[in-house]
From TrEMBL:
Residues 303-513 form the Penicillin-binding protein transpeptidase domain. PANTHER family: BINDING PROTEIN TRANSPEPTIDASE, PUTATIVE-RELATED, PENICILLIN-BINDING PROTEIN 1C. The gene is pbpC. Its EC number is 2.4.99.28. It comes from the Bacteria. Pfam families: BiPBP_C, Transgly, Transpeptidase. GO terms for biological process: peptidoglycan biosynthetic process; proteolysis. Residues 601-674 form the Penicillin-binding C-terminal domain. In the C-terminal section; belongs to the transpeptidase family. Pathway: Cell wall biogenesis; peptidoglycan biosynthesis. Keywords: Carboxypeptidase, Glycosyltransferase, Hydrolase, Multifunctional enzyme, Protease, Transferase. This is peptidoglycan glycosyltransferase. It is an enzyme of class 2 (transferase). It catalyses: [GlcNAc-(1->4)-Mur2Ac(oyl-L-Ala-gamma-D-Glu-L-Lys-D-Ala-D-Ala)](n)-di-trans,octa-cis-undecaprenyl diphosphate + beta-D-GlcNAc-(1->4)-Mur2Ac(oyl-L-Ala-gamma-D-Glu-L-Lys-D-Ala-D-Ala)-di-trans,octa-cis-undecaprenyl diphosphate = [GlcNAc-(1->4)-Mur2Ac(oyl-L-Ala-gamma-D-Glu-L-Lys-D-Ala-D-Ala)](n+1)-di-trans,octa-cis-undecaprenyl diphosphate + di-trans,octa-cis-undecaprenyl diphosphate + H(+).
Length: 679
């Protein structure tokens, strides 16, 4: 008897072992569907906020999500309601299946399901139904196989992406953005409960179509959460009174022109990071719509805002609305070729200051003049006579800037534009002429903003970029002093809103025929550009940069920061004197040929560049070689000796430390050395 019992036990163990092996082999032989889920491409702002997203190929909204970044309350509610033993079972919960079978037997109908979250993932992966027994068996087999291949968190990650939420919404993140307009990282208890309840009956419980059913499902989840101790009675009561969403929200579509371009440029990237500030982008898109009210049915606008210190573009508005309407909103006007009007004039003056052709206090002539067949006129067809260069730029006079361009050479102006990162296009690919200084050339708003960023940055060029980490080496376009002098002049223009001047350096432009109205400017951190006109290039009667675009420019900068960031102080090498104390060649503008007189340029022979000089209470001995007397000596831009004919001078200096010592000869040629003075 005893031997039979032992034999029977051994046989039973063998049968059980054999069954277990066969069962393991059955599970191991399961054909797994693809676990690689397609998610829609998305472009995000500098802080990770969603700017724009796209559906997957079949038109469903399914966005990438991380389990760790979802609201912990949603995860706890999901497990409490759907699968309390998720972390302890192997894919199938026999206790839950038995309970569901008993409830159905007693009630004569299906009361509750016994599916685990893993079984639900299996069904969602294969898009199979839930009713037929063979379908349920397949789900159980696949669930067991999934549990052997994946971790519990990986299975939850699949549910996170596959759970249906009504219509073409799939996955928690798409649902949270569509129903609540927010990421699922922070949800209210009511929101979390609805997002747990919806996948059970995604169409029947859609809150926009069946609010009563949606509320019933949500409140059941809240009751289960309260029973599980996830919510207090008061919290659950407050959550039940929270209103349901009445309609789906549109997915974010900020900076549509830019995001569409970035997606085309990087077709394989599912997550494209940018330097854009989502808050600023939202504000400026609203500003663009406001600016067009009453502006005419076909008038369009483009805005660009960047941090000129880093070169990062913070907001880009290609049009007021991304529509194929009478305004041609699909055209990105930040990159459309347009005439710059007078907005290139600051570059001409900065180049003239940098090369010793002129100084802000230099006297210029605003009188009738002709250059062969070309006879420029001022916008108002009036002449001011003799005028300071600074005032000529502030008043945007045409004749003085054309005479400077003639002295510089149009080709050199064109080269400077290219060195500034611009891509100018000459109409008909003709030889560059003097008219390019007045806007006779094609550039983009992005080009102009890049140029003004270089002026704001002290004359160094740093290409503007929307991609983080892209920071090429800055290159010098102009001297720091010339860039500062230009900005100082532009800061003296009275703002259109009547606010105090001196805080924002800015310039407007109006193209020939009133086709384009522009305004660009900067403070100590931001550089901004505005274009207004018609996308098809037809005239806008009465449109001027000062009247149309300038107010928008100041509103842009005000929405970037309540108070303008202060402009920088003058660099040490800046020559800040009145006209009478300028070196003689700079007191009145003369043609370039008169300034470049023959002879050797001056050179400071003592002290040498980079020297450390101990003054010990004595004046500094300085000596110049070459050049043409008389000489003017300057210390950190301030005149010390004027019109001295001797090549050797004794300079009385009161301060110690770094010193930029400069000398200018009678022909306007200069030399500089950097010294360090000690007592």
């Amino acid at each position: 008897m005893k031997a039979r019992l032992v034999f029977a036990l051994a046989a039973a163990l063998w049968v059980a072992g054999s069954a277990r092996d066969r069962f393991d082999a059955w599970v191991a032989a399961t054909d797994l569907p693809s676990l690689s889920l397609a998610t829609g491409a998305e472009v995000v702002a500098r802080d990770g906020r969603l700017l724009r997203a796209w559906t997957v190929a079949d038109g469903r909204w399914r966005l990438a999500a991380q389990l760790q970044t979802t609201d912990p309350l949603w995860r706890a509610m999901l497990l409490a309601y759907e699968d309390r033993r998720f972390y302890s079972h192997a894919g199938v919960d026999l206790r839950a299946l038995a309970r569901a079978a008993l409830q159905s037997l007693l009630a004569g109908r299906v009361v509750s399901g016994g599916s685990t979250l893993t079984m639900q993932v299996a069904r969602l992966l294969e898009e199979s139904g839930t009713g037929a027994w063979h379908g349920k068996l397949r789900q159980m087999r696949l669930a067991l196989a999934l549990e052997r291949q994946l971790s519990k968190d990986e299975i939850l990650g699949l549910y996170l992406h596959l759970a249906p939420y009504g219509g073409n919404l799939e996955g928690l993140r798409a649902a949270s953005l569509s129903w609540f307009g927010r990421e699922p990282s922070r949800l209210t208890p009511a929101q979390a409960a609805l997002l747990v309840a919806l996948p059970q009956a995604p169409e029947a419980r859609r809150p926009d179509r069946h609010p009563a059913r949606a509320k019933t499902g949500r409140d059941r989840v809240l009751a289960r959460a309260e029973a599980a101790g996830l919510l207090s009675h008061e919290e659950a009561l407050a959550a039940r009174s929270e209103a349901l969403p009445q309609a789906r929200r549109a997915f974010p579509q900020l900076a549509p022109h830019l995001t569409e371009r970035l997606r085309r440029e990087t077709p394989g990237d599912l997550r494209i990071e940018t330097t854009l500030d989502a808050t600023l982008q939202t504000r400026l898109e609203a500003l663009a719509r406001e600016a067009l009210r009453g502006a005419g049915a076909r008038v369009q606008i483009a805005l660009l805002l960047a941090d000129h210190q880093s070169g990062e573009i913070l907001a880009s508005v290609g049009s007021a609305a991304y529509d194929n309407d009478s305004r041609q909103g699909f055209v990105d006007m930040t990159r459309a070729l347009r005439s710059p009007g007078s907005t290139l004039k600051p570059l001409v003056y900065a180049m003239a200051f940098d090369e010793g052709l002129a100084h802000p206090e230099t006297l210029m002539e605003d009188r009738p003049v002709s250059f062969g067949a070309y006879a420029p006129q001022n916008f108002d067809r009036r002449f001011r006579g003799t005028i300071r260069a600074a005032e000529a730029l502030r008043e945007s006079l045409n004749i003085p800037v054309v005479t400077l361009t003639e002295a510089l050479g149009p080709e050199r102006l064109l080269q400077a534009m290219r060195r500034a990162g611009m891509r100018p296009v000459i109409p008909g690919r003709a030889t560059p002429g003097l008219a390019i200084a007045l806007g006779g050339i094609g550039v983009t708003l992005e080009d102009l903003t890049t140029l003004y960023a270089a002026l704001a940055r002290g004359g160094t060029v740093l290409p503007l970029s929307t991609r983080p980490g892209e920071r090429p080496q800055a290159t010098r376009l102009l001297s720091e002093a010339a860039a500062w002098q230009t900005g100082q002049i532009l800061a003296g223009i009275t703002p259109p809103d009547g606010s105090p001047d001196g805080r924002i350096a800015w310039k407007t432009g109006t193209s020939y025929g009133h086709r384009d109205a522009l305004a660009l400017g900067w403070d100590g951190r931001y550089v901004a550009g505005v274009w207004m006109g018609r996308a098809d290039g037809t005239p806008v009667p009465g449109a001027f940069g000062a009247g149309l675009a300038a107010p928008v420019l100041f509103q842009m900068l005000a929405r970037a920061t309540p108070q303008p960031v202060p402009l920088p102080p003058p660099p040490p090498a800046t020559l800040m004197v009145e006209n009478a104390r300028l070196p003689q060649p700079l007191q009145r503008f003369r043609p370039r040929g008169a300034i470049l007189a023959p002879g050797v340029a001056p050179e400071i022979s003592f002290p040498p560049d980079g020297a450390e000089v101990a003054l010990e209470g004595a004046p500094l001995l300085a000596r110049v070689r070459g050049g043409t007397a008389p000489y003017t000596w300057l210390a950190n831009g301030a005149p010390l000796e004027i019109a001295t004919r001797s090549p050797e001078v004794q300079l009385a200096l009161a301060n110690h430390g770094p010193l930029l010592l400069s000398v200018v000869d009678a022909n306007g040629r200069a030399a500089r050395v950097q010294l360090t003075l000690s007592p």
